[in-house]
Write a structure and sequence with these properties.
alpha/beta
Length: 272
């Protein structure tokens, strides 16, 4: 079991403590579908938690790039508040994934309103964690992360590559930039071309949080995953690699290679 140098604690949940936390996304278009989807997730989580003792769904992700009313401040905030009521003590992660990084582009206006959308969520403290894409630019990333921290909201800084798994040096540079720019959790997801790419990313996660990287140690929790079928092993190996969060699905997957929630519980139990 590999622990980050600085695990973060939020709502009694420790991220980076050596046990990968499970996150399931909400992917729904309408308010009605959002509430139905999140209730289905909570019900399935309760069933799985009863069957697989010691395992828990800790985080639910609101994928705002799927939500038709994302540019309506009142509707968005009220929807998030209702979601928080339904999920109870579980953490709520807010994500607007850009088209360039695999998002579900349905809103011509939303791509130009990212600043406003995140401002609304932060101002109203409508999520426990927000996801900020590293490639949005240093000024935007630092400013948004700082505002989130002022409100007690944690920040996942992320980079997604659906074409390839970058070279080691590029991955390490991105992780270090995320720390410098104010991330609480560092996330990289990449598409492997072969099993070597999968092993390489898994090993980099381990090296990053055990101080084996030369020059500049990574101190915050790191999340890495190889996408697609050959990358599935990376999603269930967090205790070995130190990857702090893994993503599963209930209903509709939000990224290639995700396991459904029951499969995730089963695989993590087998790895104990």
């Amino acid at each position: 079991m590999i622990t980050a140098l600085k695990p973060i604690e939020l709502g009694g949940i420790r991220i980076g403590d050596g046990y990968p936390k499970i996150c399931v996304p909400i992917v729904a278009r309408s308010e009605e579908d959002v509430f139905a989807n999140v209730q289905r997730i909570v019900d399935e989580a309760a069933r799985c938690e009863a069957e697989y003792e010691g395992k828990r769904l800790d985080i639910i992700e609101f994928r705002a790039d799927y939500f038709d009313m994302v540019t309506n401040k009142t509707v968005l905030i009220e929807t998030l508040k209702k979601v928080k009521e339904i999920i109870g003590e579980r953490l709520l992660l807010f994500t607007y994934r850009s088209e360039e990084e695999g998002g579900n582009l349905r809103h011509d206006r939303a791509e130009n309103m990212i600043d406003d959308i995140y401002e609304w969520v932060i101002e109203k403290e409508a999520a426990d964690i927000i996801d900020i894409e590293l490639l949005q630019g240093n000024y935007y990333v630092v400013r948004t992360a700082s505002k989130a921290h002022d409100k007690g909201i944690k920040v996942i800084m992320s980079y997604h590559n659906f074409e390839e798994t970058p070279h080691d040096d590029e991955i390490i540079e991105k992780l270090r930039n995320m720390e410098v720019l104010g991330a609480d959790i560092l996330k990289i997801a990449a598409m492997p071309k072969n099993e070597f790419d999968v092993r390489r990313l898994m090993e980099l996660n381990e090296y990053a949080i055990t101080g084996k990287l030369k020059g500049y140690p990574i101190t915050h929790p790191v999340v890495t995953m190889s996408m697609g079928d050959i990358g599935k092993v990376s999603r269930i190996s967090g205790k070995k690699t130190g990857s702090a969060i893994t993503f599963a699905y209930v209903g509709e997957e939000s990224a290639p290679g995700q396991l459904n929630l029951e499969e995730m519980f089963k695989e993590l139990q087998l790895s104990d």
